[in-house]
Design brief:
Blueprint: H1 3-8, H2 12-21, H3 23-45, H4 50-77, H5 80-99, H6 104-132, H7 138-142, H8 144-162, H9 169-175, H10 178-188, H11 195-200, H12 204-214, H13 220-233, H14 248-263, H15 266-278, H16 284-308, H17 314-337, H18 346-361, H19 363-371, H20 377-400, H21 402-409, H22 411-432, H23 441-448
Length: 464
């Protein structure tokens, strides 16, 4: 039995609350995947041109930028738990409004509302899970968020496939997104507050009760003392504290991961995979059917990442996965550059599958995991919000300009550009990204913060 599965089975309560919180990732995954197929029909029904299509996709991302920033702040003010519950309510409203939209403008507005919920949840879910989870299984458990994102994408692809020949089916596609929002709202009623958030509020007895349920056979009071010590060393903070010398190196790593995760073009693959496959000559319904294999591959390799993150380590999977997707992007560029659409149309699908598999074991889960680990407790909520903001902003720019970039420089050059950015990412990871496997959040904080207090070394007798 893999080490992660064995260790995780000893903490059933942790697994339960982590899976419930990770439903926030399902919101993002479903809405990301569903628009890829729905867009092929929306553009006909609502007479949406390239610019309108770009905004229909990017509206969610624009809302997510604001939602991520607000989510981090709300996580500190009203708790991680209540922020997720409110996000679920907003998401239900946005999904229903999108299904009822009569114009492209109304649909864009509804997707901005959806983005507020998705952005807030994306900033809070990894934080909430990390603060509940023992170090030995934190990598795999926090990655439930990414697993739920991939499951949401796959479910959306299945819905797209099932409704592809239904008149007005795109409305059902986007409207069914209200379902995971409702589930998230009810789930948050049954999960506890984060022990670290409780300690920040001076509610140690409550924090101890929560930790006693998430730690089996461990010294709960010692961990509470460690959290209390970190809280006592931190003063009241604001966003400007994120650029203090003690935090700045961590912020560079977090923002770098956030931007590179999107700069490699992942959401052009997710949002536009059916569109990319139509470039090979497929009809819309056939492209949606083939896109299912992309969704299945995404889920399978995310499960592989969950099992490996606490054994192999974050940094190794990050670098290996990014190298793999670089090869896939070069293959896509060659496919379009050498005109293989007629002679070898299968190459595009193979390249997409290699790409999504490599992303799923590396940049996909590692970004969300590491930003939940590397920041000091007092600024963790705000820091994750800032990293999420940069991630969503990069997502917006890459997704919004994908179709325009294709028109401006061609398909081959677009994918060569993404491949070049992936190489830059690998160099950054090797130079800047630390390994955080099997260490408490407080240990990581003390190690990465150059001005953090360190225990004095014991005096040793001088040699005679």
């Amino acid at each position: 039995m893999p080490g992660y599965v064995r260790e995780a089975s000893r903490n059933p309560f942790v697994l339960k609350i982590s899976m419930l919180a990770a439903l926030g990732g399902l919101l993002f995954g479903y809405d990301t995947g569903v628009i890829s197929g729905a867009l092929l029909y929306i553009k006909e029904d609502l007479h949406a041109g390239s610019l309108a299509q770009s905004w229909i996709v990017a509206g969610l991302l624009a809302g997510a930028v604001a939602g991520a920033l607000a989510g981090g702040r709300l996580a500190d003010l009203i708790s991680r738990r209540w922020t997720l519950l409110i996000s679920g309510i907003i998401y239900v409203v946005g999904a229903l409004a999108a299904a009822l939209a009569q114009t492209s403008g109304q649909l864009v507005t509804a997707r901005v509302v959806l983005g507020l919920a998705v952005g807030a949840a994306s900033a809070v879910v990894p934080l909430y899970i990390a603060e509940h989870t023992p170090p030995r299984i934190r990598g795999g458990t926090v990655s439930y968020n990414q697993l739920m994102i991939t499951i949401g994408i796959l479910v959306a692809y299945l819905v797209n496939f099932a409704l592809r020949n239904v008149d007005g089916g795109w409305r059902w596609m986007v409207g069914l997104g209200a379902t995971p929002g409702v589930v998230l709202v009810f789930s948050m009623v049954f999960v506890p507050y984060s022990p670290r958030w409780l300690m920040q509020r001076g509610r140690r007895p409550e924090a101890r009760r929560v930790l006693a349920r998430t730690r089996r056979g461990e010294d709960v009071d010692a961990e509470l003392d460690e959290i209390e010590s970190v809280v006592a060393q931190e003063h009241r903070t604001g966003f400007r504290d994120l650029v203090r010398p003690a935090v700045r190196p961590m912020l560079v790593v977090g923002i770098g991961l956030a931007v590179i995760q999107q700069a490699v073009g992942v959401n052009t693959v997710v949002y536009f995979s059916p569109t990319i496959l139509t470039y090979t000559g497929l009809e819309a319904s056939d492209a949606i059917a083939q896109a299912l294999t992309v969704g299945i591959t995404n889920v399978v390799f995310t499960v592989v990442a969950v099992l490996l993150l606490d054994r192999v380590g974050r940094r190794t999977l990050l670098i290996t996965g990014t190298a793999g997707l670089t090869v896939a992007l070069a293959l896509l560029a060659a496919f379009f550059g050498l005109g293989w659409q007629d002679s070898a149309p299968w190459v595009a699908l193979v390249a997409l599958l290699i790409y999504i598999a490599a992303f799923a074991i590396g940049l996909g889960p590692v970004f969300w995991l590491m930003i939940s680990e590397i920041f000091p407790l007092a600024v963790r909520g705000r820091a994750i919000a800032v990293c999420s903001l940069f991630n969503w902003a990069a997502n917006f720019l890459v997704s919004y300009y994908f179709l325009q970039l294709i028109d401006a420089i061609g398909r081959a050059s677009t994918f060569w550009l993404y491949a070049g950015l992936s190489v830059i990412g690998i160099v950054f990871f090797i130079a800047k990204v630390p390994e955080t496997r099997n260490r408490t959040l407080e240990e990581i904080e003390r190690d990465l913060a150059p001005s953090a207090p360190r225990p004095a070394a014991p005096n040793k007798p001088r040699p005679a």
